[in-house]
Amino acid sequence: MEEPARAILHVDMDAFYASVEQRDDPSLRGKPVAVGGTRRRGVVLAASYEARPFGVRSAIPVARALRLCPQLVCVPPNFAKYELASDQVFAIFHQFTPEVEGLSLDEAFLDVTRSQALLGPALQQAREIKSRIKAQTQLTASVGIAEVKFAAKIASDLCKPDGLLEVPPGHVRDFLAPLPAARLWGVGPRTDEILAKLGLRKIGEVAQADPACLEAQLGSTGTWLHDLANGIDPRHVEPDAKAKSIGAEETFEEDLLGDDLLPFILEQAMRVAARLRRAGVKARSVHLKVKYTDFKIATRQATLPLPTDDGAEIYRTASGLLAKVDPRPIRLTGVHAGDLGTAPPQLGLFDAGRKKRDRLNRSLDAIAEKFGADAVLPADLAAQRKK
């Protein structure tokens, strides 16, 4: 019996942090909202769809966002609340398939190939997922469907907000062809400039280019881009519990430096911790990745004394690693947790303290849920906000 074509969903919540704030505070609905620093020297973590036409985007300074949109409402982040909403959404995902690869609190790949026999075609499942998310969380999601991960993600991007777009089986190459080459994963401004000089401005033109020429200009990246442009993306959806590491990254629209990076590193640490807990694993190492304005990448890592799924501990470690990289403008940060394991750590002298910390985390989450993120913060971040 012939196996069905792969069916992969990319589900992306719409303006997640801002939408949660608008859901929970009716006075914010319909207004331009930015989640992030409330002081003018802070940065925007997320922007509502009402704010985006003014040019308000993540990673831009709050002061600039207010100049672009004087009526902008700035709300401090509440990660405990976002994690709760994320847990509800991921619980829905697992009602359809165990093959769920979380990318962040608000984004995941789902492989529903095998579940089609029981739950119906991928399009039907996607509609039901969107419906359940709306009913249970009062939030909206956009879903892309395709045979490969890359095309599914682009499809969800193109149908935002609250959209659903399916790339028919066998038509991934046709779907990609008219899109800008910059849509290809791994194509930043510099690579896009090289492709433009070669006359390759559309994905379809990259697909038809000589692979040897692309490799000569871009190295192994050229081969990778040629495959993607032709709809070749063999990567499987990898559930977090089976992953070798769990991470979260973000590319900023404007280069950042020093303390302005800390809110993003905190957010990434919290996202990683939530995924660790969801997968039932703990990490023994923390890795920090930064990409500079010249696209050079630096990584630093630290081994933890005990495995953890605690966002505050991951943040403290990652922020400490930031001090070990060159202090120059940065366009991307990523926090990754490695050396994952499900076995409980060996009991020892500090076991009682570790259990106490777990109970404390649950209490802090409850406080943050009730009173907001600023009620409880890692001490080093709290010190930064007082400056």
Describe this structure in words.
The protein has helices at 16-24, 62-68, 79-93, 116-119, 122-137, 149-158, 172-176, 189-197, 203-208, 211-218, 220-229, 262-279, 311-322, 351-371, 379-386, and strands at residues 8-13, 33-36, 44-47, 73-75, 100-104, 107-111, 141-146, 164-166, 245-256, 283-292, 297-308, 330-338. The chain has 387 residues and is of the alpha+beta class. Helix 3 runs antiparallel to helix 5, helix 10 (211-218) packs across helix 11 and helix 12 (262-279) packs across helix 13 (311-322). It has 3 domains: 1-169, Alpha-Beta Plaits (2-Layer Sandwich), CATH 3.30.70; 173-229, 5' to 3' exonuclease, C-terminal subdomain (DNA polymerase, domain 1); 243-386, DNA polymerase, Y-family, little finger domain (Dna Ligase, domain 1, 2-Layer Sandwich).
In short:
This protein has 387 residues and is an alpha+beta fold. It contains 15 helices and twelve strands.
Number of helices: 15
Please estimate the helix content. 40-55%
- Unreliable segments of 5+ consecutive residues: 345-350, 364-387
Name of the top-level CATH class of the largest domain:
Alpha Beta
Biggest sheet descriptor: 5 strands, mixed
Instruction: Give the full name of the CATH homologous superfamily of the largest domain.
Output: Reverse transcriptase/Diguanylate cyclase domain
Distance between the termini: 66 Å
Helix/strand structural class: alpha+beta
Total of domains: 3
Give the topology string: H per helix, E per strand. EHEEHEHEEHHEHEHHHHHEHEEHEHH
Coarse shape: globular
Strand order, largest beta sheet:
5-6-1-7-8
Radius of gyration (CA) equals 21 Å
- By DSSP, the count of extended strands is 12
Give me the CATH fold name of the largest domain.
Alpha-Beta Plaits
**Overall pLDDT level:** 86
Task: Name the CATH architecture of the largest domain.
Answer: 2-Layer Sandwich
- Taken as a percent bin, the fraction of beta residues is 15-25%
